[in-house]
Amino acid sequence: MLIKTTTGIPSSEITPQEKFLSRRGFLAGAAAVAGAGVIAPQGLWGATKLQTTPGKFSLSETPTPLKKAISYNNFYEYGVDKGDPAANAHRLKPRPWTVQVEGQIQKPLTFDIDTIMNYRPLEDRVYRFRCVEAWSMVIPWVGYSFSEFVKACNPLPSAKYIQFISLADRKQMDLPDSAGIYWPYSEGLRMDEAMHPLTLLTFGSYGQTLENQQGAPIRIIIPWKYGFKSAKSIVKIRFLDKQPHTSWNDLAPNEYGFYANVNPQHNHPRWSQASERKIDASLFPKTVPTLSFNGYGSEVAGLYNGMDLHKNY
Ligand SMILES: Nc1nc2c(c(=O)[nH]1)N[C@H]1C(S)=C(S)[C@@H](COP(=O)(O)O)O[C@H]1N2
Ligand SMILES: [Mo]
Question: Where is the signal peptide (predicted)?
């Protein structure tokens, strides 16, 4: 059985939870698409082709070339330069992989990565992706709405926030002190942000599994927020009653807020956020104006009614 509890609880005690998840369609969903998710190893960059359907919310823009998307990355566990993740993330082992879920839920859960990946049909979602460092890409991510997964975990009403925790394993990662981050990398969302249908539980891009440097085998993508909110290589998801600490908040609270909505009017203390270098197929990236909420305002602005987004940056 792919669903285990975290603390070696005997399998007899797991049964009610399994039945519960089955009733909710979690196991049924897994069975219905079993084998549909993963096809055959491609041998290219270690990625595996995924079977996908065209998803909601896709931009009609031409995606950034795959090669650029996987050679210019932020993944501080492997070094602070943009080329470091592509050079060093081969050390990451994306299988076997489990994701623990804990906190304000009925009972802690541990899921195998393939159970999560096969739970819902995988969609292609071409999203704009904007880094706080003022560059952007257009990436065809592969995944399904994170809200589907949340519902399957059955959080308690006291769950108001979600925290994502990335792997921090010295056997597989460098975890350099120079990054300044207190490992493990962690990020968080308010529950309504997490439940928004744009928030994508992500397993792939460009029709194939994530490259290690993109945060294989599972990451989150929140397209209206700066890229640092989108935690990579997630091993733990916590439902919380209070706003969680996040890596960048802890490191530089004057530079990185909890909300981190893309806001061209609110500058980073060291640079403007009014424009971005658009990384596309051209040799020299064009600079284009940045859109509020990264262009997703009509979908998400309502989540922040009555909030001062200069204070809550
Ligand atoms: N675990 C982890 N997740 C992370 C980061 C990181 O250093 N470690 N960097 C963040 C930042 S700053 C950005 S811009 C995006 C980069 O994603 P990409 O390399 O796929 O473009 O990942 C985010 N998620
Ligand atoms: Mo970033």
Answer: none
